[in-house]
Amino acid sequence: MRPALLRLDGVEAGYGDMIAVRGVSLEVRTGEIVALIGSNGAGKTTTLRAIGGLVPVRRGRVDLDGTRISGLPPAAIVAGGIAHVPEGRQLFPTMTVRENLELGARTPESRRRRPETLARVLELFPRLAERRRQLAGTLSGGEQQMTAIGRALMARPRLLLLDEPSLGLAPVVVAAIFENLARINRDGVAILLVEQNVTRALRFAQRTYVLENGTIALEGPSARLSADERIKRAYFGR
Amino acid sequence: MAVGLTLIFGVMRVVNFAHGDMMVWGMYVTFLLASRAGVDPYVAFGAAAAALFVLGLVVQRGLVDRVLDAPHEMQILLMLGVALILENTALLAFGPEPTRARSTLAAATIWLGPVFVDVARLIAFGVALALTAALWLFLFRTELGRLMRATADNTFGALVIGTDVRRVYAVAFGVGAACVGAAGALVAPILPWEPATGLSLSVASFNIVIIGGMGSLLGAFVGGLLVSVAESLGAVFLQPSLKELASFSLLILILLFRPAGLFGNGRDG
To answer: Which residue, among A37, A28, A40, A26, has the nearest Cα to A3 in the 3D structure?
Structure first.
Protein backbone atom coordinates (compact mmCIF):
# COMPACT_ATOMS: atom_id res chain seq x y z
CA MET A 1 0.00 0.00 0.00
CA ARG A 2 1.20 3.52 -0.82
CA PRO A 3 2.20 5.67 2.19
CA ALA A 4 -0.11 8.38 3.53
CA LEU A 5 0.81 11.78 2.16
CA LEU A 6 -1.63 13.62 4.40
CA ARG A 7 -3.08 12.32 7.61
CA LEU A 8 -5.59 13.97 9.94
CA ASP A 9 -5.92 12.46 13.36
CA GLY A 10 -8.80 13.58 15.61
CA VAL A 11 -8.66 17.15 14.33
CA GLU A 12 -10.80 19.67 16.14
CA ALA A 13 -10.95 23.18 14.65
CA GLY A 14 -13.21 26.21 14.50
CA TYR A 15 -13.57 29.96 14.54
CA GLY A 16 -13.70 31.78 17.87
CA ASP A 17 -15.98 29.94 20.26
CA MET A 18 -17.54 27.88 17.51
CA ILE A 19 -16.10 24.42 16.93
CA ALA A 20 -16.99 23.51 13.35
CA VAL A 21 -14.94 20.33 13.16
CA ARG A 22 -14.78 17.83 16.04
CA GLY A 23 -12.50 14.86 15.73
CA VAL A 24 -11.97 14.42 11.99
CA SER A 25 -9.56 11.67 10.93
CA LEU A 26 -8.78 11.05 7.30
CA GLU A 27 -5.97 10.14 4.95
CA VAL A 28 -4.85 11.08 1.45
CA ARG A 29 -2.20 8.89 -0.18
CA THR A 30 0.37 10.00 -2.74
CA GLY A 31 -1.29 10.73 -6.09
CA GLU A 32 -4.75 9.83 -4.83
CA ILE A 33 -8.05 11.66 -5.38
CA VAL A 34 -10.17 11.83 -2.24
CA ALA A 35 -13.53 13.57 -1.87
CA LEU A 36 -15.00 15.08 1.25
CA ILE A 37 -18.78 15.48 1.01
CA GLY A 38 -21.48 16.49 3.44
CA SER A 39 -24.31 18.96 3.90
CA ASN A 40 -23.83 22.70 4.36
CA GLY A 41 -22.23 23.50 7.68
CA ALA A 42 -20.90 19.97 8.15
CA GLY A 43 -17.37 21.39 8.47
CA LYS A 44 -15.90 20.65 5.03
CA THR A 45 -14.43 24.10 4.45
CA THR A 46 -13.15 24.31 8.01
CA THR A 47 -11.40 20.95 7.57
CA LEU A 48 -9.57 22.20 4.47
CA ARG A 49 -8.67 25.46 6.19
CA ALA A 50 -7.36 23.59 9.21
CA ILE A 51 -5.10 21.55 6.91
CA GLY A 52 -3.86 24.75 5.26
CA GLY A 53 -3.16 26.41 8.61
CA LEU A 54 -5.82 29.07 7.98
CA VAL A 55 -7.89 27.99 10.99
CA PRO A 56 -6.16 26.90 14.20
CA VAL A 57 -6.23 23.17 14.98
CA ARG A 58 -7.44 22.99 18.60
CA ARG A 59 -6.94 19.31 19.18
CA GLY A 60 -5.55 16.36 17.25
CA ARG A 61 -2.90 16.68 14.58
CA VAL A 62 -2.28 17.03 10.87
CA ASP A 63 0.74 15.24 9.39
CA LEU A 64 2.34 15.62 6.00
CA ASP A 65 4.66 12.69 5.17
CA GLY A 66 4.54 11.70 8.82
CA THR A 67 5.69 15.12 10.04
CA ARG A 68 3.37 17.32 12.05
CA ILE A 69 2.23 20.44 10.18
CA SER A 70 -0.64 21.54 12.41
CA GLY A 71 0.34 24.72 14.20
CA LEU A 72 2.61 25.86 11.37
CA PRO A 73 1.79 29.12 9.53
CA PRO A 74 0.14 28.82 6.08
CA ALA A 75 3.38 29.83 4.35
CA ALA A 76 5.21 26.80 5.81
CA ILE A 77 2.39 24.45 4.84
CA VAL A 78 2.40 25.76 1.26
CA ALA A 79 6.18 25.30 1.21
CA GLY A 80 5.63 21.71 2.37
CA GLY A 81 3.68 20.98 -0.79
CA ILE A 82 0.02 21.67 -0.02
CA ALA A 83 -1.71 24.27 -2.20
CA HIS A 84 -5.20 25.49 -1.48
CA VAL A 85 -7.88 26.50 -4.00
CA PRO A 86 -10.21 28.20 -1.53
CA GLU A 87 -13.95 28.61 -1.56
CA GLY A 88 -14.85 31.75 -3.49
CA ARG A 89 -11.49 31.55 -5.33
CA GLN A 90 -9.97 34.44 -3.34
CA LEU A 91 -8.13 35.95 -6.30
CA PHE A 92 -6.56 39.41 -6.41
CA PRO A 93 -9.23 41.22 -8.46
CA THR A 94 -7.28 44.37 -9.38
CA MET A 95 -4.25 42.42 -10.57
CA THR A 96 -3.82 40.74 -13.93
CA VAL A 97 -4.33 37.03 -14.49
CA ARG A 98 -0.62 36.66 -15.05
CA GLU A 99 0.22 38.45 -11.79
CA ASN A 100 -2.29 36.29 -9.95
CA LEU A 101 -0.68 33.15 -11.33
CA GLU A 102 2.89 34.28 -10.72
CA LEU A 103 2.14 35.18 -7.11
CA GLY A 104 1.23 31.55 -6.53
CA ALA A 105 4.94 30.69 -6.59
CA ARG A 106 6.09 31.73 -3.13
CA THR A 107 8.87 29.30 -2.21
CA PRO A 108 12.43 29.75 -3.58
CA GLU A 109 12.15 26.47 -5.50
CA SER A 110 8.81 27.32 -7.12
CA ARG A 111 10.02 30.84 -7.94
CA ARG A 112 13.09 29.47 -9.65
CA ARG A 113 10.95 27.22 -11.82
CA ARG A 114 8.24 29.81 -12.34
CA PRO A 115 8.53 30.26 -16.13
CA GLU A 116 8.37 26.50 -16.66
CA THR A 117 5.38 26.04 -14.33
CA LEU A 118 3.58 29.03 -15.85
CA ALA A 119 3.98 27.53 -19.32
CA ARG A 120 2.49 24.27 -18.06
CA VAL A 121 -0.45 26.04 -16.41
CA LEU A 122 -1.20 28.07 -19.55
CA GLU A 123 -1.04 24.87 -21.58
CA LEU A 124 -3.60 23.30 -19.23
CA PHE A 125 -5.82 26.38 -19.38
CA PRO A 126 -5.38 27.96 -22.83
CA ARG A 127 -8.17 30.37 -21.96
CA LEU A 128 -5.95 31.94 -19.29
CA ALA A 129 -3.17 32.46 -21.84
CA GLU A 130 -5.60 34.56 -23.88
CA ARG A 131 -6.62 36.56 -20.83
CA ARG A 132 -3.30 36.89 -19.08
CA ARG A 133 -3.27 40.71 -19.28
CA GLN A 134 -6.85 41.05 -18.11
CA LEU A 135 -7.68 41.94 -14.50
CA ALA A 136 -8.79 38.89 -12.54
CA GLY A 137 -11.88 40.73 -11.27
CA THR A 138 -13.22 41.02 -14.82
CA LEU A 139 -13.08 37.29 -15.61
CA SER A 140 -16.08 34.98 -15.83
CA GLY A 141 -16.68 32.59 -12.95
CA GLY A 142 -15.15 29.64 -14.80
CA GLU A 143 -12.07 31.62 -15.78
CA GLN A 144 -11.67 32.78 -12.19
CA GLN A 145 -11.83 29.20 -11.02
CA MET A 146 -9.18 28.24 -13.57
CA THR A 147 -7.01 31.12 -12.36
CA ALA A 148 -7.40 29.99 -8.76
CA ILE A 149 -6.41 26.41 -9.68
CA GLY A 150 -3.54 27.70 -11.82
CA ARG A 151 -2.32 29.92 -8.99
CA ALA A 152 -2.27 26.92 -6.65
CA LEU A 153 -0.36 24.85 -9.24
CA MET A 154 2.30 27.56 -9.45
CA ALA A 155 3.39 26.46 -5.97
CA ARG A 156 4.25 23.03 -7.51
CA PRO A 157 2.21 21.18 -4.88
CA ARG A 158 2.03 17.47 -4.18
CA LEU A 159 -1.45 17.87 -2.75
CA LEU A 160 -4.16 20.19 -4.02
CA LEU A 161 -6.97 21.18 -1.65
CA LEU A 162 -10.04 22.10 -3.69
CA ASP A 163 -12.97 23.83 -2.02
CA GLU A 164 -16.19 23.70 -4.07
CA PRO A 165 -14.63 24.23 -7.51
CA SER A 166 -18.01 23.81 -9.24
CA LEU A 167 -19.87 26.39 -7.17
CA GLY A 168 -21.93 28.75 -9.31
CA LEU A 169 -20.60 27.46 -12.62
CA ALA A 170 -22.49 26.18 -15.66
CA PRO A 171 -22.42 22.36 -16.10
CA VAL A 172 -20.31 22.59 -19.28
CA VAL A 173 -17.72 24.67 -17.47
CA VAL A 174 -17.76 22.29 -14.50
CA ALA A 175 -17.12 19.34 -16.82
CA ALA A 176 -14.15 21.15 -18.39
CA ILE A 177 -12.69 21.98 -15.00
CA PHE A 178 -12.97 18.39 -13.79
CA GLU A 179 -11.30 17.19 -16.97
CA ASN A 180 -8.41 19.53 -16.17
CA LEU A 181 -8.28 18.31 -12.59
CA ALA A 182 -7.96 14.74 -13.85
CA ARG A 183 -5.00 15.82 -16.03
CA ILE A 184 -3.39 17.56 -13.06
CA ASN A 185 -3.82 14.38 -11.04
CA ARG A 186 -2.17 12.33 -13.82
CA ASP A 187 0.87 14.61 -13.38
CA GLY A 188 1.15 13.10 -9.91
CA VAL A 189 -0.68 15.71 -7.81
CA ALA A 190 -2.94 14.24 -5.11
CA ILE A 191 -6.31 15.94 -4.70
CA LEU A 192 -8.54 16.43 -1.67
CA LEU A 193 -11.84 17.69 -3.04
CA VAL A 194 -14.68 19.29 -1.11
CA GLU A 195 -17.76 19.28 -3.27
CA GLN A 196 -21.49 19.88 -2.89
CA ASN A 197 -22.14 18.13 -6.19
CA VAL A 198 -22.17 14.62 -4.67
CA THR A 199 -22.68 12.70 -7.91
CA ARG A 200 -19.70 14.35 -9.50
CA ALA A 201 -17.54 13.98 -6.40
CA LEU A 202 -18.26 10.25 -6.11
CA ARG A 203 -17.54 9.74 -9.80
CA PHE A 204 -14.28 11.72 -9.65
CA ALA A 205 -12.70 10.47 -6.42
CA GLN A 206 -11.29 7.03 -5.67
CA ARG A 207 -12.26 7.27 -2.02
CA THR A 208 -14.82 9.44 -0.27
CA TYR A 209 -15.40 10.65 3.28
CA VAL A 210 -18.82 11.83 4.40
CA LEU A 211 -18.76 14.59 6.98
CA GLU A 212 -21.77 15.10 9.26
CA ASN A 213 -21.92 17.62 12.10
CA GLY A 214 -18.16 17.99 12.16
CA THR A 215 -17.23 14.30 12.21
CA ILE A 216 -16.67 11.59 9.61
CA ALA A 217 -19.90 9.60 9.40
CA LEU A 218 -18.97 7.27 6.54
CA GLU A 219 -15.93 6.49 4.47
CA GLY A 220 -14.83 4.10 1.76
CA PRO A 221 -14.21 3.61 -1.95
CA SER A 222 -16.47 5.96 -3.89
CA ALA A 223 -18.04 3.10 -5.86
CA ARG A 224 -19.20 1.42 -2.65
CA LEU A 225 -20.53 4.68 -1.17
CA SER A 226 -22.48 5.40 -4.35
CA ALA A 227 -24.39 2.20 -3.71
CA ASP A 228 -24.84 2.86 0.00
CA GLU A 229 -28.48 3.24 1.04
CA ARG A 230 -27.77 6.03 3.49
CA ILE A 231 -25.99 8.12 0.82
CA LYS A 232 -28.81 7.51 -1.63
CA ARG A 233 -31.37 8.61 0.90
CA ALA A 234 -29.46 11.64 2.19
CA TYR A 235 -28.17 13.04 -1.08
CA PHE A 236 -30.25 11.70 -3.91
CA GLY A 237 -33.61 11.55 -2.18
CA ARG A 238 -34.24 7.98 -3.23
CA MET B 1 2.81 62.16 2.25
CA ALA B 2 -0.71 61.33 1.28
CA VAL B 3 0.77 58.55 -0.84
CA GLY B 4 2.30 57.02 2.30
CA LEU B 5 -0.99 57.18 4.16
CA THR B 6 -2.73 55.55 1.21
CA LEU B 7 -0.21 52.73 1.15
CA ILE B 8 -0.66 51.94 4.83
CA PHE B 9 -4.45 52.14 4.66
CA GLY B 10 -4.66 50.29 1.36
CA VAL B 11 -2.59 47.35 2.49
CA MET B 12 -3.53 47.05 6.13
CA ARG B 13 -6.86 48.86 6.49
CA VAL B 14 -5.32 50.70 9.42
CA VAL B 15 -5.78 54.45 9.51
CA ASN B 16 -2.50 55.99 10.59
CA PHE B 17 -3.51 58.90 12.81
CA ALA B 18 0.13 59.48 13.66
CA HIS B 19 0.88 60.34 10.05
CA GLY B 20 1.25 64.09 10.54
CA ASP B 21 3.39 63.57 13.62
CA MET B 22 5.61 61.18 11.71
CA MET B 23 6.01 63.91 9.12
CA VAL B 24 6.97 66.39 11.83
CA TRP B 25 9.63 63.93 12.95
CA GLY B 26 10.88 63.75 9.37
CA MET B 27 11.19 67.54 9.55
CA TYR B 28 13.10 67.41 12.83
CA VAL B 29 15.49 64.78 11.48
CA THR B 30 16.14 67.12 8.55
CA PHE B 31 16.50 70.07 10.90
CA LEU B 32 19.01 68.23 13.10
CA LEU B 33 21.09 67.17 10.13
CA ALA B 34 20.96 70.68 8.69
CA SER B 35 21.78 72.57 11.87
CA ARG B 36 24.27 70.15 13.46
CA ALA B 37 25.97 68.56 10.49
CA GLY B 38 25.36 71.22 7.86
CA VAL B 39 23.60 68.80 5.53
CA ASP B 40 21.32 70.55 3.09
CA PRO B 41 17.65 69.57 3.67
CA TYR B 42 17.38 68.36 0.09
CA VAL B 43 20.22 65.95 0.70
CA ALA B 44 18.92 64.95 4.12
CA PHE B 45 15.65 63.64 2.79
CA GLY B 46 17.13 60.19 2.24
CA ALA B 47 18.17 60.05 5.89
CA ALA B 48 14.76 61.28 7.00
CA ALA B 49 13.08 58.61 4.90
CA ALA B 50 15.37 55.90 6.32
CA ALA B 51 14.79 57.03 9.92
CA LEU B 52 11.03 57.06 9.42
CA PHE B 53 11.14 53.67 7.70
CA VAL B 54 12.65 52.26 10.88
CA LEU B 55 10.14 54.13 13.05
CA GLY B 56 7.28 52.77 10.92
CA LEU B 57 8.65 49.24 11.14
CA VAL B 58 8.95 49.46 14.93
CA VAL B 59 5.46 50.92 15.36
CA GLN B 60 4.00 48.19 13.14
CA ARG B 61 5.91 45.26 14.63
CA GLY B 62 5.66 46.42 18.23
CA LEU B 63 2.16 47.87 18.35
CA VAL B 64 -0.08 47.70 15.31
CA ASP B 65 0.50 43.98 14.82
CA ARG B 66 -1.22 43.30 18.13
CA VAL B 67 -4.44 45.11 17.28
CA LEU B 68 -4.84 44.19 13.59
CA ASP B 69 -7.63 41.74 14.37
CA ALA B 70 -9.12 43.97 17.04
CA PRO B 71 -12.11 46.24 16.32
CA HIS B 72 -11.42 49.49 14.46
CA GLU B 73 -11.84 51.59 17.63
CA MET B 74 -8.83 49.85 19.13
CA GLN B 75 -6.68 50.68 16.15
CA ILE B 76 -7.84 54.28 16.23
CA LEU B 77 -7.06 54.60 19.94
CA LEU B 78 -3.65 53.02 19.43
CA MET B 79 -2.73 55.29 16.54
CA LEU B 80 -3.96 58.36 18.43
CA GLY B 81 -1.76 57.23 21.30
CA VAL B 82 1.23 56.90 18.99
CA ALA B 83 0.45 60.39 17.65
CA LEU B 84 0.37 61.84 21.18
CA ILE B 85 3.64 60.18 22.12
CA LEU B 86 5.39 61.38 18.98
CA GLU B 87 4.09 64.92 19.38
CA ASN B 88 5.01 65.20 23.06
CA THR B 89 8.43 63.64 22.58
CA ALA B 90 9.07 66.29 19.95
CA LEU B 91 7.85 68.93 22.40
CA LEU B 92 10.22 67.61 25.05
CA ALA B 93 13.19 67.41 22.71
CA PHE B 94 12.79 70.54 20.62
CA GLY B 95 10.48 72.83 22.59
CA PRO B 96 7.28 74.48 21.38
CA GLU B 97 8.87 77.22 19.25
CA PRO B 98 8.41 77.12 15.49
CA THR B 99 11.45 75.76 13.65
CA ARG B 100 12.62 76.05 10.09
CA ALA B 101 15.34 74.21 8.24
CA ARG B 102 17.50 76.50 6.16
CA SER B 103 18.56 75.52 2.69
CA THR B 104 20.78 77.61 0.47
CA LEU B 105 18.90 76.23 -2.50
CA ALA B 106 15.53 77.26 -1.12
CA ALA B 107 16.34 80.95 -1.02
CA ALA B 108 16.47 81.17 -4.78
CA THR B 109 13.62 81.85 -7.12
CA ILE B 110 13.61 81.61 -10.88
CA TRP B 111 11.48 82.93 -13.67
CA LEU B 112 9.91 80.31 -15.85
CA GLY B 113 8.56 82.33 -18.75
CA PRO B 114 6.04 84.73 -17.25
CA VAL B 115 5.76 82.95 -13.89
CA PHE B 116 7.82 83.39 -10.82
CA VAL B 117 8.78 80.02 -9.28
CA ASP B 118 10.13 79.28 -5.86
CA VAL B 119 13.02 76.80 -6.29
CA ALA B 120 12.23 75.05 -3.00
CA ARG B 121 8.70 74.28 -4.11
CA LEU B 122 9.90 73.20 -7.52
CA ILE B 123 12.36 70.75 -5.96
CA ALA B 124 9.74 69.49 -3.54
CA PHE B 125 7.33 68.90 -6.40
CA GLY B 126 9.95 67.23 -8.57
CA VAL B 127 11.13 64.90 -5.83
CA ALA B 128 7.56 64.06 -4.81
CA LEU B 129 6.87 63.16 -8.43
CA ALA B 130 10.01 61.01 -8.59
CA LEU B 131 9.16 59.28 -5.30
CA THR B 132 5.64 58.51 -6.46
CA ALA B 133 7.08 57.06 -9.65
CA ALA B 134 9.59 55.00 -7.65
CA LEU B 135 6.83 53.73 -5.39
CA TRP B 136 4.78 52.83 -8.45
CA LEU B 137 7.70 50.87 -9.88
CA PHE B 138 8.18 49.12 -6.56
CA LEU B 139 4.51 48.13 -6.36
CA PHE B 140 4.15 47.01 -9.96
CA ARG B 141 7.57 45.67 -10.89
CA THR B 142 8.99 43.95 -7.80
CA GLU B 143 7.83 40.74 -6.19
CA LEU B 144 7.45 42.32 -2.76
CA GLY B 145 5.50 45.22 -4.25
CA ARG B 146 3.18 42.82 -6.06
CA LEU B 147 2.66 40.90 -2.84
CA MET B 148 1.78 44.17 -1.17
CA ARG B 149 -0.85 44.91 -3.81
CA ALA B 150 -2.12 41.35 -3.54
CA THR B 151 -2.44 41.70 0.24
CA ALA B 152 -4.26 45.00 -0.20
CA ASP B 153 -6.57 43.37 -2.74
CA ASN B 154 -7.40 40.25 -0.75
CA THR B 155 -5.64 39.53 2.51
CA PHE B 156 -7.14 36.06 2.89
CA GLY B 157 -6.11 35.21 -0.67
CA ALA B 158 -2.57 36.33 0.11
CA LEU B 159 -2.54 34.12 3.19
CA VAL B 160 -3.84 31.16 1.18
CA ILE B 161 -0.97 31.31 -1.33
CA GLY B 162 1.51 31.29 1.54
CA THR B 163 2.37 34.95 2.04
CA ASP B 164 4.02 36.03 5.27
CA VAL B 165 1.37 38.72 5.67
CA ARG B 166 2.97 40.18 8.81
CA ARG B 167 6.18 40.83 6.93
CA VAL B 168 4.26 42.51 4.11
CA TYR B 169 2.48 44.68 6.68
CA ALA B 170 5.75 45.67 8.33
CA VAL B 171 7.31 46.71 5.02
CA ALA B 172 4.13 48.55 3.97
CA PHE B 173 4.09 50.51 7.22
CA GLY B 174 7.81 51.19 6.93
CA VAL B 175 7.57 52.37 3.32
CA GLY B 176 4.48 54.44 4.13
CA ALA B 177 6.32 56.12 7.00
CA ALA B 178 9.41 56.61 4.81
CA CYS B 179 7.21 58.48 2.31
CA VAL B 180 6.09 60.93 5.00
CA GLY B 181 9.67 61.20 6.26
CA ALA B 182 10.79 62.23 2.80
CA ALA B 183 7.80 64.57 2.49
CA GLY B 184 8.75 66.14 5.83
CA ALA B 185 12.30 66.76 4.65
CA LEU B 186 11.06 68.31 1.42
CA VAL B 187 8.73 70.82 3.04
CA ALA B 188 11.04 71.58 5.97
CA PRO B 189 12.68 74.53 4.16
CA ILE B 190 9.31 75.85 2.95
CA LEU B 191 7.08 75.53 5.95
CA PRO B 192 8.03 76.54 9.49
CA TRP B 193 6.70 73.99 11.95
CA GLU B 194 6.35 73.16 15.64
CA PRO B 195 5.47 69.88 17.42
CA ALA B 196 1.74 70.71 17.27
CA THR B 197 1.82 70.99 13.46
CA GLY B 198 1.40 67.21 13.24
CA LEU B 199 -2.34 67.29 13.79
CA SER B 200 -3.05 69.78 11.03
CA LEU B 201 -0.77 67.80 8.71
CA SER B 202 -2.67 64.61 9.51
CA VAL B 203 -5.96 66.37 8.81
CA ALA B 204 -4.61 67.75 5.53
CA SER B 205 -3.47 64.34 4.36
CA PHE B 206 -6.76 62.68 5.35
CA ASN B 207 -8.49 65.34 3.30
CA ILE B 208 -6.28 64.51 0.31
CA VAL B 209 -6.70 60.77 0.68
CA ILE B 210 -10.48 60.98 1.02
CA ILE B 211 -10.74 63.26 -2.02
CA GLY B 212 -8.55 60.92 -4.06
CA GLY B 213 -10.27 57.76 -2.86
CA MET B 214 -9.17 55.58 0.05
CA GLY B 215 -6.44 53.14 -0.91
CA SER B 216 -5.73 54.58 -4.38
CA LEU B 217 -2.16 55.77 -5.06
CA LEU B 218 -3.12 57.76 -8.14
CA GLY B 219 -5.99 59.22 -6.13
CA ALA B 220 -3.60 60.36 -3.41
CA PHE B 221 -1.41 62.11 -5.94
CA VAL B 222 -4.24 63.81 -7.84
CA GLY B 223 -5.94 64.63 -4.53
CA GLY B 224 -2.74 66.31 -3.34
CA LEU B 225 -2.59 68.46 -6.46
CA LEU B 226 -6.27 69.40 -6.23
CA VAL B 227 -6.03 70.34 -2.58
CA SER B 228 -2.97 72.52 -3.07
CA VAL B 229 -4.52 74.27 -6.08
CA ALA B 230 -7.74 74.82 -4.13
CA GLU B 231 -5.82 76.24 -1.18
CA SER B 232 -3.73 78.55 -3.35
CA LEU B 233 -6.84 79.86 -5.10
CA GLY B 234 -8.55 80.18 -1.72
CA ALA B 235 -5.61 82.19 -0.41
CA VAL B 236 -5.73 84.52 -3.41
CA PHE B 237 -9.47 85.06 -3.70
CA LEU B 238 -10.50 84.89 -0.06
CA GLN B 239 -7.82 85.47 2.52
CA PRO B 240 -4.63 83.48 3.21
CA SER B 241 -6.00 82.40 6.58
CA LEU B 242 -9.14 81.06 4.91
CA LYS B 243 -7.40 78.79 2.43
CA GLU B 244 -8.50 75.63 4.22
CA LEU B 245 -12.06 76.73 3.55
CA ALA B 246 -11.40 76.03 -0.12
CA SER B 247 -9.91 72.56 0.40
CA PHE B 248 -12.60 71.41 2.81
CA SER B 249 -15.35 72.76 0.57
CA LEU B 250 -13.76 70.69 -2.18
CA LEU B 251 -13.86 67.67 0.14
CA ILE B 252 -17.57 68.17 0.86
CA LEU B 253 -18.35 68.65 -2.83
CA ILE B 254 -16.52 65.49 -3.82
CA LEU B 255 -18.10 63.47 -1.05
CA LEU B 256 -21.53 64.65 -2.19
CA PHE B 257 -21.01 63.55 -5.77
CA ARG B 258 -18.50 60.72 -5.44
CA PRO B 259 -18.69 59.32 -1.90
CA ALA B 260 -15.86 56.86 -2.59
CA GLY B 261 -13.51 59.65 -3.70
CA LEU B 262 -12.25 60.37 -7.21
CA PHE B 263 -10.42 57.09 -7.72
CA GLY B 264 -11.99 55.03 -4.95
CA ASN B 265 -13.78 51.82 -5.83
CA GLY B 266 -16.31 52.09 -3.01
CA ARG B 267 -15.45 48.63 -1.70
CA ASP B 268 -13.81 50.05 1.42
CA GLY B 269 -17.00 51.77 2.48
So the answer is: A28
Surface of A (138-157) touching B: CB under 8 A: 151-152, 155
Q: Which of residues 49-68 of A touch B (CB under 8 A)?
A: 52, 54
SS3 B202: helix
> Does the distance separating the beta carbons of B156 and A90 come in below 8 Å?
yes
Angle at B212 between CA B141 and CA B15, to 5 degrees: 80
* Residues from chain B contacting residue A77 (CB–CB below 8 Å): 162
List, for residues B153-164, the tens digit of each pLDDT value. 888 999 999 999
Q: How large is the ipTM? A: 0.90
Q: Which of chain B's residues have a Cβ under 8 Å away from the Cβ of A152?
A: 161
Q: In what order do the strands lie in the sheet with A190-194?
A: A82-85, A159-163, A190-194, A33-37, A207-212, A215-221
Q: Checking phi first, is residue A37 left (phi over 0); if not, alpha (psi -120 to 50) or beta?
A: beta
Q: A92 and B154 in contact by Cβ < 8 A? A: yes
> What tens digit of pLDDT does each residue of A173-219 get?
999 999 999 999 999 999 999 998 899 999 999 999 999 988 998 89
Q: What is the reported pTM?
A: 0.84
Interface of B with A in 159-188 (CB under 8 A): 159-164
Residue B88 lies in a domain: yes
Specify if B246 maps to a domain. no
Q: Is residue B32 part of a domain?
A: yes
Q: Into how many domains does chain B fold?
A: 1
Please tell me the distance from the alpha carbon of residue B180 to that of residue B184, in angstroms, as a whole number.
6
Q: Cα B58 to the chain's mean position, in Å? A: 17
Contact B154 A90 (CB under 8 A): yes
Chain centroid to CA A52: 10
Domain that holds residue B113: 2-194
Per CATH, the homologous superfamily of domain A1-81+157-238 is P-loop containing nucleotide triphosphate hydrolases (3.40.50.300)
Helix (H/G/I), strand (E/B), else coil: A147: helix
User: B1-24: per-residue pLDDT in tens?
Assistant: 566 666 666 665 667 778 888 888
Residues of chain B in contact with residue A151, where contact means CB-CB under 8 angstroms, are 161
The per-residue pLDDT of chain B, averaged, comes to: 79
Q: Are A106 and B163 within 8 A, CB to CB?
A: yes
pLDDT digits (tens, 9 = 90+) for B198-235: 888 888 877 787 777 766 667 777 777 777 777 777 77
Nearest Cα neighbor of B64 from B149, B202, B220, B170 is B170
For A135, which DSSP code?
A: B
In a domain, B158, yes or no: yes
Cα–Cα dist B252/A25, whole Å? 58
